[in-house]
Each structure stands twice: as C-alpha cells, then as structure tokens.
C-alpha cells in the first residue's frame, strides 16, 4: 500500500534554496520532509558554482605558470593533464558534498525522500515512488536548467551545457561558446587558460547586465589572453561536421555577409529556464510564467500555503539569493511576525573571471535612469594601488555611484579579488552609509582594499582641497 506522510513543512528540491529551508525549519523543531529527484546539492554543488570555480582555479595556476617569468621565476609552458583536472573537480565536489548529504540532513531531523515530486492538490504532493504527502506549508525550490536557443540546426549538433561539460572537459580543441553571460565568460577564460582555443558568440554585448565601463576591462583581458569574442553575433544556423565538431554560421554585423566558424565542441550558455514542468502546479493553483513561479514580496505563490525560492522563483539567479530567500521563507512560515519582504538593494553579484567583476546596488546607468543629474561617480584605478603593482595585478578600477551628498547608490570593482573587495560595500549599502564612512578608517597598507577608500576619498577631495577650505585654514592659522 502507498505510504501516506503528514508533515508540517515539505520542501521540493535539495539545491541551495531547498537545503537552506529544510535545515532552518528542522533545526527550529518543525517536522520537515525534503524531496530530491537527483543529486543532493543541486546545480551549485554538482554542475554550477563549485565545478566552475574549481576549473577557474586550475586555469589560474596554468596562467601563473605561463606568466611566471615576469616575476623572475623560470617556468615552461604549462602541461595540462585533462584526467587530473577532472579529478581535481571531482575532489572539490566530494569535499563539499557531505554538507549537503542525505546523512547530514537526516541527522538534522529532516526526512529525505529520493524521488521526483508533483502536486496533486493545494496541499498534497505525490512522489514517483508512490508516497503521498500532505503538508501545512510547502516550499518549491526546483531550480532551473539551461535554455537552448531556437537556432536552426541546434538539434543536429552535439551540445554541451553546464550539466555535461564538467563530466567531459573539452580540453585542447576549439570550443565555441554560445552566450557571453557569466557562464560563457567564466568558461571562456578557464578553457583558454588551460590551452583550448575559445570563441564566444554573443548576440548582444559581453556581460550585457553589467556596467560597460567595468566589462571593458574583462573584455580586454580575455582578448589579450587569446579568447575570440564576437559581439552582435547573429547565429543563422549550426551544422554538424562529419566525424565530430560543429560549424556556426553567423551573419557579419558590419558587412551583412556570412561567416563560418568551425569548432570541435559547442557549449550553450544562453540563459536558464525555470524547472516547472511535471510539477503539477495547476493542480495546486500555483501561477507561473516563462520566468518562473509568480511570487509576492514575501515569496508566497498564488497558493497561500506554498512558497517558492531560488532560480524557480523568477528573480536573480545566484546561490546567495536562494539562501537569502530561504531565510525569509523560514521566518515567514514559522514566526507570526510581520512578514519579511525580499529586498535586493544590496544584492552583490560577482563574475569570477580574472580580473573579477563585482557589483552591488545600482550601476551608473541604472542610477542615472532613477536619479538623473543628481548622480555622482568616483573612481580609483588599480594601477595607483601599491599592492596591485607588487602583485602585477594592475588591470581594473573601483567605481562608486553616489548621490550629491555622497550616499552610496552602488559600487563596482573590476580587478583581482574584486569579489572579496566588494563585501564592505555590501555592508555599507545595506546600512545606507555614505562614502564618508570609508574616508576616516585606517585601511591596512599595502592592500588591494585601499582602492575603495581612495575612490571614496576622491569624491570628497575637490571640496576638501578647495580655495574655500584653504582660506579657512589660513584664517585658523592666525590664532595658532
Ligand atoms: C555554471 C554555473 C555557475 C554558477 N556559478 C555561480 C556562482 O559562482 N555564484 C552564484 O551565486 N551562483 C552561481 N550559479 C547559479 C546557482 O548555481 C543557482 O542560482 C543555484 O544553484 C540555484 O539554487 P536552487 O536551489 O534554486 O536550484 P538548484 O540548485 O538547481 O536545485 C534544484 C533541485 O531541485 C531538484 N528538483 C527539480 N525538480 C524536482 C522535482 N519535481 N522533484 C524533486 N526534486 C526536484 C533538482 O534535481 C535540483 O537538485 C551558477 C550556475 C551555473 C549553471
Ligand atoms: N559568478 C556567478 O555568480 C555566476 C556564474 C555563472 C552563472 N551564474 C548565474 O546563472 C545564470 C545563467 O547564466 P548564463 O550565462 O547562461 O545566462 P545569462 O542569461 O546571464 O546570459 C546569457 C547570454 O547569452 C546570450 N544569448 C542568448 N541567446 C543567444 C543566441 N541565440 N546567440 C548568442 N547569444 C545568445 C544573451 O545575450 C546573454 O548575454 C546567470 O544569470 C547567473 O545568475 C552566476
């Protein structure tokens, strides 16, 4: 007979979002069931953040070996062993996996079911294994999957996505990448540094959601290292090459003529689709669109018992967003306080190329659209930073977007370790601080972090060293 389970909290999907909800509700003593149809840890651990950052780390080492001569250290061209790189990726995943494992969650008091789940009613769910569940609150955290753009011929060529590329690293040939978003550029640099020829085909401009002034530094570095970047690329069709490989036929932006580019492998990194299929959302009265499940500011769906978090909820797609949303949902489900609203004002986003590109808050363009002429911009280049010179990491800048009085509206850093350097600016933005908060602090010398303080100081220095201040100092000296 089919098992019937009654629970307080039911979570569907054990990725970044679902795991955080289940850990929270179980540790607060609420009976919790978590259903996962595939690998615990979801995209981030198995096919996303973790393997991509591990591959970038291997690529950084290859680059360091290739460029060691400028430090006076002799080294030859790096020798890359694909099987060993693959083992490195698997090792990193295996080291983190216990945190997301069935054993750990069972230990926290969560009942974990390994099966696909679907709604059968407003508060009922069924698994493919035949279990029937009824829950007081349900959280959908089913994530997203790669979108395949409707390019003629795409079904006739072998396509790699983030779901397959880390299991069969296409090292050594010519990798064509469709899409120059975060996945496209991170993978472009990783494979190029590991000795693969790479061509990025982006229909708009590289990293189109980011500040173009900061993106320019990433673009220039990628090109310098040998990545071919085709922007404004209209891919007319894809054709298979007999014996393996792919040809992308493009329309040339300027001449309007056709260009054929042949590669050994094709990675599609052209955006994501929310995982809503087969979930029976209609049976539960849960509305969704092509972007994902529709949620209000409290992350509640159109069914009041059901919440959605993470990539499936149609908002920004980052692991830290899924974690943040999970925290809000736990609070909103369990504490009968005024429901917390999601606020993305201080949402950081980092692309882990070298140089890294990190932003928080508004870009200059977004700020000008909202505040018009009241927007001020202050910059500090990394080549003016002593530590950057010592490390030979001088590409990049810190860019602050401020209002007239110096209140921080956004901050962007492109440069070495920008993802680490952005963190004080996340705190500053979330605490509504002004740039003045940075000018008085003692920043340790020599650190890359000094660029933030200098960019803040640059905003005030025209007023500080003005004729008016000099006159004031002269008058005060009469009394000394
Ligand atoms: C290549 C790549 C690199 C990335 N790098 C970063 C990064 O550096 N930093 C960052 O912040 N973000 C990064 N991301 C984004 C990040 O991985 C996602 O935002 C995050 O994983 C979303 O978590 P989630 O819980 O919403 O979904 P997922 O992690 O996708 O988890 C959803 C889970 O639900 C399960 N599921 C689906 N349907 C069902 C069902 N019917 N029944 C049971 N289980 C089901 C799935 O099997 C899956 O395990 C990257 C993504 C990719 C693809
Ligand atoms: N470092 C990080 O935090 C990180 C890294 C990787 C992914 N992610 C997350 O995963 C999400 C998905 O990444 P992504 O790079 O696939 O998506 P994306 O939507 O951010 O970028 C996709 C790119 O593909 C281009 N594109 C779409 N169709 C095309 C076509 N037919 N021809 C050429 N170009 C085309 C788009 O113009 C866009 O620039 C990101 O938005 C991000 O939230 C985060």
From TrEMBL:
Cofactor: FAD
Domain Pyridine nucleotide-disulphide oxidoreductase dimerisation, chain residue ranges per copy: 348-455
Gene3D superfamilies per record: 3.30.390.30, FAD/NAD(P)-binding domain
Family: Belongs to the class-I pyridine nucleotide-disulfide oxidoreductase family.
Domain (FAD/NAD(P)-binding): residue spans on this chain: 8-326
Keyword field: Disulfide bond, FAD, Flavoprotein, NADP, Oxidoreductase, Redox-active center
Name the UniProt record assigns to this protein: Dihydrolipoyl dehydrogenase family protein
Database matches in PROSITE patterns: PYRIDINE_REDOX_1
Enzyme class: oxidoreductase
Source organism (scientific name): Rhodocista pekingensis
EC number: 1.-.-.-
PANTHER family assigned: MERCURIC REDUCTASE
Top-level lineage group: Bacteria
One term of GO molecular function: oxidoreductase activity
């Amino acid at each position: 007979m089919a098992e019937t389970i009654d629970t307080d909290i039911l979570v569907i999907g054990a990725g970044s979002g679902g795991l955080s909800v289940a850990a929270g509700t179980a540790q607060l003593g609420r009976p919790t069931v978590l259903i996962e149809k595939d690998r615990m840890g979801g995209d981030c651990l198995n096919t996303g953040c973790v393997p991509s950052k591990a591959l970038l780390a291997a690529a950084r080492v290859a680059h360091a070996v290739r460029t060691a001569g400028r430090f006076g250290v002799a080294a030859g061209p790096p020798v890359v062993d694909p099987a060993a790189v693959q083992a490195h990726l698997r090792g990193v995943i295996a080291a983190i996996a216990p945190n997301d494992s069935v054993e750990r969650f069972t230990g926290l008091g969560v009942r974990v079911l390994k099966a696909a789940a679907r709604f059968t009613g407003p508060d009922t769910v069924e698994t493919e294994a035949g279990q029937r569940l009824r829950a007081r609150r349900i959280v959908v955290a089913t994530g997203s999957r790669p979108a395949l753009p409707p390019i003629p011929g795409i079904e006739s060529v072998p396509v790699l996505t983030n779901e397959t590329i880390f299991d069969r690293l296409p090292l050594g040939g010519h990798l064509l990448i469709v899409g120059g978003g975060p996945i496209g550029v991170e993978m472009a640099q990783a494979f190029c540094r590991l000795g693969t020829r790479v061509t990025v085909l982006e229909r708009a401009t590289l990293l189109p959601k980011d500040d173009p002034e900061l993106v320019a530094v990433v673009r220039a570095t990628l090109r310098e290292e040998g990545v071919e970047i085709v922007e404004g690329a209209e891919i007319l069709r894809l054709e298979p090459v007999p014996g393996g490989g792919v040809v992308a036929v493009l329309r040339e932006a300027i001449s309007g003529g056709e260009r054929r580019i042949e590669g050994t492998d094709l990675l599609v990194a052209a955006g994501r689709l929310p995982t809503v299929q087969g979930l029976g959302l209609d049976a539960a009265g849960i509305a969704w669109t092509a972007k994902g499940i529709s949620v209000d500011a409290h992350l509640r769906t159109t069914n009041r018992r059901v919440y959605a978090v993470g990539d499936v909820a149609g908002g920004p797609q980052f692991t830290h967003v899924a974690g943040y949303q999970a925290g809000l949902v736990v609070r909103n489900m369990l504490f009968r306080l005024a429901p917390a609203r999601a606020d993305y004002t201080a949402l950081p986003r980092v692309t882990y190329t070298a140089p890294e590109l990190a932003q928080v808050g508004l870009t200059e363009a977004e700020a000008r659209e909202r505040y018009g002429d009241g927007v001020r911009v202050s910059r500090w280049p990394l080549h003016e930073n002593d530590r950057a010179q010592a490390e030979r990491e001088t590409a990049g800048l810190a860019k602050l977007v401020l209002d007239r009085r110096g209140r921080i509206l956004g901050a962007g850093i492109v440069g070495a370790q920008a993802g680490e350097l952005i963190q004080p600016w996340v705190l500053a933005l979330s605490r509504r601080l002004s740039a003045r908060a940075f000018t008085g602090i003692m920043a340790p010398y020599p650190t890359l972090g000094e660029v933030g303080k200098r960019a803040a100081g640059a905003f005030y220095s025209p007023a500080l060293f003005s004729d008016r201040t000099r006159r004031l100092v002269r008058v005060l000296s009469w009394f000394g």
